[in-house]
Every structure is written in C-alpha cells, then in structure tokens.
Design brief:
heterodimer; A: 77% helix; B: alpha/beta; Rossmann fold; Alpha-Beta Plaits; six-stranded mixed beta sheet; 11 helices; 14 strands
Chain lengths: 273, 328
C-alpha cells in the first residue's frame, strides 16, 4: 500500500549500555525499598526481630548441644535472609508487570536483559545490607566467628546462593503473574526448605524420614557450609570437610542458576508473545 | 506522501482464545498527522499499539515505524517512538522529575542531557511545581501528564498514546487534549486510541473505527460524522403543534426537520452546537410554540457503531460515556 523503503538502522545495545541499564534499574528497585516506609521496615526491623526471637525464645530450648546457640544461629540467619530477600524478585516483578511499568521499559531502546538483571541485582544488594545488619546485631548479642575472613567468605557464599534463588523466584513470579499468586507460591517453597533444614536447628533432632531431605537439600547444604566457614571445621557434622562442603555448595548454586536463569528469560519473553 | 506508521494485514490471536484480537488490520499514518483509533474495550486497539510499539509479536502481517520494520529491527523502532497511556506507568515512589530523568537515561541520554530534557518537558506539561514530589501524592490528571512527559523525553518521532484520558474526569480531559495538541504541533506523528468519539474528533486528523479486531471505517471526523449524522437537537412538542413547528424550523435551517416517531422527537441538525440550540429555542418562542422537552444530542461511540454495524458497542460502559445528553 506504500512504497516507503525499509531502512536498516543497525541499532544495537552495546555491553556498556546493557550494564548501565541494569544499574539504572537496580537503583530504581532499591529506591523503592528506601522510599516506601513499610518495605524498609520489612527489610530491617523484621529480620532483627526474628534474630532476637530465635535467640531468646527458642535458643534456650534448642541450645542443648551448643555452648553458644547464637554462634549456630547467625550463619543460618544469613541464609534465611537471602532466601526471603530472593522472594522479592517474584513480588517486585509481578507488581511491575501489573502496573504496566515493564511495558514502558520494553518500549525503550534499552537492554532487554536489564529488567531481570536489575531486579535480581537489587535483591542481592538488599540482602547484603540486611545481612551486614544481622552480623552487627548478632555481634552485640554474643556472636563470635572463628575468623573474620571465614565469616566474610560465608557471607559471600550465602549472598551468591540468594542471587541464584532470585532467578527461581523470577520464574515463579512470571508463571504466577499476579503479586498475590507469586507471594503464596514463593512462601509455599520457602517455608519447607527453610524450616526443614539446618538453618535454625540441627537436623539430628528431626524424625529420620525427614532427616534425609533436611540434610541434603540445598538450603541446609549452604547453611552448614556458611557455619563451617564462619566457625571452623568443628561446627560441621563429623566426616565433612570445609572444602568438600564449599564445592557441594557451589555445585548447587551453579546448578540452580543454570536451570532457573534460562527458564526465567524464556518465561519473560513468553509473556509478550 | 510519506508514511510514519504502516501496518499491513496485522493478525493476532492470543493464546487460549479462539477469537482473534486483530483479524487483519491495515492502517497508514502520514508523517506529522494524528490518527485516532476509535473502538470499545476489547476491540483490538491496545493490541495494535502493542504490535507497533514492539511489545507484541503479531501472528502475521508486517508493520513499519519511520520505515523501520518492527519485527526485524525492534531496537531501531524503539529509538523512534514514545509510548504512554492508560496504565500511566510511572513509579509511585519516585518524584515526577526522577521518573522523567530515569526514562531519559534509558533512552541512552547522558545524565546531564536527561536532566535538561526533563526540565524542558516538565515545563511544557506544566508540572514544574510538583516535579519534586513523589508521584504517589499526584492526582489522576497529574499522573497522565507525567506519563506524557515520560513518553516525550526521548524526543520521539512517533508517539503512541493508548487511551490517554480513560478514567479521568471530563474537566481534566480537555486539559490533556489541549496538552496533546500542543505537544504534537511540532510535527510529531501521533497514534492514539480512544473510546470517545469526541476525543478522536478533537485531536485526530484521521479516524479509524475498530470493532472485533477489524477496521470497519476510516475517514476524517467530518466524513464519519456525515455517515452518522453529527450533533443534533432533539425536541418534543404537543402533537397539535407539529405542523407549525415544522414550518418554523424549516424557516430556521432551510430544510424540514426529521421526525423520530419511535421517540416522538423532532430532530434538527445542530450545525453550530449549542448556538443552534439557542436559535431553535428562540425560533420556537417567537412562533409561540411551547417546547415540552429539548436536548442537544452528540453522537457517541454507540451511535457510530449503531450506524456502521447495526449493533451497539458491546463492551463500552455507558456510564463512562463522554458526551452527556444535555450539554451547553
């Protein structure tokens, strides 16, 4: 109907631009937490409350085998924080989808990867901040790691695990579509994995059928490894080495990421086809 | 003649639906013109915008924006377009200015450029005073204006506005229209969708009427109005006064009024809108004929559909109709 010639523009997104776009969206997602009082409260006061409740309410009952339950608890709390932090990826993504913000982003000449990458990176930064707070509060109430270097290595391992879990929750958000569905689905996954694990209590106290799951599922593997790194090899179950646990943890983290990230990208594209 | 937007036989059926959202729609928009896509909810308006704005892949058909193919070179298209509209996709927790700067940065402007462009568009949409307040404190009309600002910060050649005034009160609606008119006066090509005939009439050089995923009519506002009859005055008089009324009104308009016997109404074309209403009242008063009921009836989307398709626009909500029946 018209003879308008098609002009190739050779428009490309450079890697530098992709990184800049990711950082712009990371900043945006973090601003949201900083500017919304209820989210800031949820991100700071609630984890501190959890830490204090577990230490002083359950601590006495659980403490049996330990000299100091807070030493056992803090590495678990670090893992707990990154998992709950990762669920933000699901809720944040679905809220943006529902609001139409993602439509605007997708109409801009920006890197398409920036929406998911900026989302997961923001949750990584958020978890880093919350975990720094956890270590600080933990120190005030008696947490004493064996070495600072080991603690930092454990912190990093927990954060990287949280990052790969963000992609799992990105998938759940994109499948669930609504913030409500994403949140209920996330919690359905989070609670069994966090509580049937070595995060808060040693798995030896659980019934034997549950122990098999609780000991080998990734959340326990990471929590136990962080504990070994922060407290030394004597904090590990007998027969485990720190090196072995670190390798197993890395295998889980990489494995989860390699399955979830491509799935996340695929579901993200599918929404718009 | 050069076209800024060309859609050729676009079809799209959403997954899980057996009814096509678009059943082969072709439109061409001349560069610098305003095209109004008019239709009820679910007609396919948003789907077409989403295809043209590279948000959605059509099942078949071809589309270009500024000569760039939307499927082959979506990034190229995105450098040329701005998208705004009904969802008013702005961030609640950021200030107005932060929102606009952020979009500018995502158009790959430098920080300094994005800031100066933001100042410029905030000035143009008259939102400078509120620019540093969080958007969550904005009224609906302010959000729409901010949404417009965000869609303009990248200096797009082609602007897509999806129902820019749906859901806002009629008073702010006219402000937004004036703003849009001003914003595109510099030669921007605009495709807007609307459920309101009056909005398309006010803004568009060319109007396409869409229903069930098909373009059922296309033309200028005047051409369409001619097909559906335009604004009319409907009045009711006593039966005994009919003949005298016909004579008096013929004296005024030069032609016999139509008689709608189903509703017992005399129908006179209102060529000058409310001025015609005054003249009709004056004429009837001079002739000493009492008027039992009189109203100015503006053609609505329903009238357009009734006359074009023989059915009422199914999913349009009547309570949201723009033209109230009596208007001054």
């Amino acid at each position: 109907m018209t003879a308008t010639p098609v002009r190739p523009t050779h428009a490309r997104i450079s890697p530098q631009q992709a990184i800049k776009d990711m950082l712009i969206l990371t900043k945006r997602n973090l601003m949201r937490i900083v500017r919304m009082p209820q989210l800031l409260l949820f991100a700071t006061v609630q984890p501190v409350m959890f830490l204090l409740l577990f230490t002083y309410v359950f601590g006495g009952a659980i403490a049996g085998p330990f000299d100091n339950y807070i030493d056992y608890l803090i590495p678990g709390i670090l893992v707990n924080t990154v998992i709950f932090g990762a669920t933000n990826t699901a809720t944040g993504l679905t809220e943006d989808l529902a609001a139409g913000v993602i439509d605007r982003f997708r109409s801009l000449p920006m890197a398409r990867s920036a929406v998911l990458a900026g989302r997961t990176l923001a949750d990584f930064v958020r978890s880093s901040a919350v975990n720094t707070l956890m270590i600080f509060v933990g120190y005030l109430i008696g947490f004493r790691p064996a070495s600072i270097g080991g603690l930092l290595a454990g912190l990093l391992l927990a954060l990287v695990f949280g990052y790969s879990m963000s992609w799992v929750f990105a998938v759940m958000g994109l499948v669930g579509r609504t913030p409500e569905a994403a949140q209920s689905a996330s919690f359905l996954v989070v609670f069994p994995f966090v509580f049937a694990s070595s995060v808060f209590v040693p798995v030896q106290s659980m019934p034997s059928w549950l122990q098999v799951f609780a000991e080998n599922q990734p959340v326990s593997v990471i929590a136990t490894t962080v504990r070994g790194l922060a407290l030394g090899v004597e904090a590990l179950p007998s027969g485990k080495s720190i090196e072995g646990m670190v390798m197993l943890s890395i295998a889980w983290i990489v494995g989860i990421f390699l399955v979830a990230a491509p799935l996340g990208v695929r579901y993200y594209r599918r929404i718009f086809s | 003649m050069s076209f800024a937007v060309v859609a050729d036989s676009i079809t799209k059926t959403y997954k899980g639906s057996d009814v096509p959202a678009l059943g082969g729609v072709s439109i061409s928009i001349e560069r610098g013109k305003v095209y109004g896509l008019l239709g009820p909810n679910g007609a396919g308006k948003t789907t077409l915008i989403r295809v043209l704005a590279t948000l959605l892949k059509p099942d078949s058909g071809r589309a270009t924006v500024e000569g760039i193919d939307v499927l082959a070179d979506p990034i190229g298209v995105r450098t040329k377009i701005g998208l705004g509209g009904q969802y008013a996709a702005v961030d609640e927790f950021l200030t107005g200015r932060e929102n606009v700067v952020q979009v500018g940065r995502l158009y790959n402007l430098s920080v300094a450029e994005a800031r100066s462009r933001a100042d410029e568009v905030l000035e143009r949409i008259n939102l400078v005073d509120a620019a540093d307040r969080p958007v969550r404190t904005y009224s609906g009309g302010m959000r729409r204006r901010l949404d417009l600002a965000a869609s303009l910060v990248g200096k797009p050649d082609v602007l897509f506005l999806d129902e820019p005034t749906t859901g806002i009160d009629p008073a702010s609606r006219v402000d937004i229209w004036d703003l849009i008119e001003d914003l595109v006066s510099g030669g921007t090509t605009l495709l807007l969708t609307t459920q309101y005939l009056e909005e398309a009439d006010y803004l568009a050089d060319m109007i396409g009427v869409i229903d069930h995923g098909l373009l059922i009519a296309e033309g200028t506002a005047d051409e369409l109005k001619e097909r559906i009859g335009g604004v009319v005055i409907e009045l009711r008089v006593r039966r005994d006064d009919h003949d005298r009324s016909m004579v008096a009104l013929r004296g005024l308009t030069g032609s016999e009024p139509m008689y709608d016997d189903e509703h017992d109404l005399l129908v006179v074309p209102a060529t000058d809108g409310s001025q015609s209403l005054i003249e009709v009242v004056r004429t009837m008063d001079t002739a000493g004929i009492p008027i039992l009921d009189i109203q100015l009836h503006k053609p609505t989307l329903d009238d357009v559909f009734l006359s074009l398709t023989g059915h009422v626009a199914e999913r349009s909500s009547r309570t949201d109709e723009l033209g109230s029946e009596v208007d001054s």
